[in-house]
Amino acid sequence: MIKTFSHLTFYLLVIFLCSNTLYGKTFKFASLSPEGSDWMQKMRSGAKEINERTEGRVKFKFYPGGVMGDDQAVLRKIRIGQLHGGALAGGSIIKANSDYRIFSLLLTYKNQGEINYIRKHIDPIIKQGFENGGFVILGMAESGFAYAMSSKAPITAIEQLRQQKVWSPSNDRISQETLQSFGVTPIPLPYGDVLAGLQTGLIDTVAMSPIGAIALQWYTQIKYITDMPLLYSLGILTINQKAFKKIKPKDQIIVREVMSKAFDAIETTNRKNNLEALDVLKNSGIEFVKPSETEYSNWQQFADKANKNLVESGNLDAKLVNKVQHLLNDYRK
């Protein structure tokens, strides 16, 4: 009887240990955001709340400041299991959900009100698309509208753009093809090499949000900004779906809830900071230039053609584009 009880105790202990192995997890996340930044502060605060609410079953370990490499390096490490997720530019995992490009349509969204209205309807579709592609989106926060920024000469016309050395993110085929549709031969570089590229003259034109230009110190090399929102960009916190499913369903709910709340707070701060960043850029001596009506019309024609090519090439769902256009029409009424 005692022997049987000992065996039973042993098996229960094995089951308990296996259960803890299955449901307890430390997730490893990488980010380009430096330690001490608002992003890192809010993600660490969220991780602390998750640890407390899951009674230590779910923990986060962060690798900030780009120590794990750029977004593509982080994705490679996620694929081999060295990392579980990352705080990335949304476009970096475009292969998992090509419909994310709906946010990057050129000269489509004119102001913050329009993008807020669109995202209210489109965000759930985009998140589900990423999950279908193997990634769980724990949070989305806007980086903001990207503007053309130049270190050499003002850019108000497409002909002027063609005379510049224009940067495009490495491994971003769609960005490169879009620039080519404007008659520009882009110079691909990883984000970490852009500042040096501006300093050495390897490149002289970039597209970036105001807060991004300041955070990455690119603005120190910039002399002109074209006052025309080109496209909209988002940062996301994503995790490999298989890794995420290894924790308890109730813990999954907690992680989603807490990190979504953290990224809502990040987004609120980002919107405020982008407005302030525009003033900082103006006060730093950077000249803001604006296309004439004729020049803007020319930009719009090329943008419409590039957006149409995305659909015709199968890189963006035509139904989603039509849905967004209807939403914009409704909002503008």
Give the C-level CATH assignment: Alpha Beta
Helicity level, as a percent range?
A: 40-55%
If you average the pLDDT, what whole number results?
90
Order of helices and strands: HEHEHEHEHEHEHEHEEHHEHH
Quickly count the domains: 1
Based on DSSP secondary structure assignment, what is the total number of beta strands? 10
Radius of gyration: 23 Å
Count helical runs: 12
Q: Main β-sheet, in a few words?
A: 8 strands, mixed
Characteristics of this structure?
333 residues, alpha/beta, eight-stranded mixed beta sheet, 10 strands, 50% helix, globular
In short:
The chain has 333 residues and is of the alpha/beta class. It is built from twelve helices and ten strands. Strands 1, 2, 3, 4, 7, 8, 9 and 10 form an eight-stranded mixed sheet that branches.
Description:
The protein has 333 residues and is α/β, with parallel strands linked by helices. The protein has a single domain, classed as Bacterial extracellular solute-binding protein, family 7 (D-Maltodextrin-Binding Protein, domain 2, 3-Layer(aba) Sandwich). The protein is built from 12 helices and 10 strands. The chain has helices at residues 2-23, 38-53, 71-79, 112-132, 158-161, 173-181, 194-200, 210-215, 241-244, 249-283, 293-312, 318-332, and strands at 25-31, 58-63, 85-89, 135-150, 167-169, 187-189, 205-208, 224-226, 231-240, 287-289. The strands form 2 sheets. Strands 1, 2, 3, 4, 7, 8, 9 and 10 form an 8-stranded mixed sheet that branches. α2 (38-53) links the parallel β1 (25-31) and β2. It is globular, with a radius of gyration of 23 Å. 39% of the residues are buried. Mean pLDDT is 90; it is low at 2-6 and 8-22.
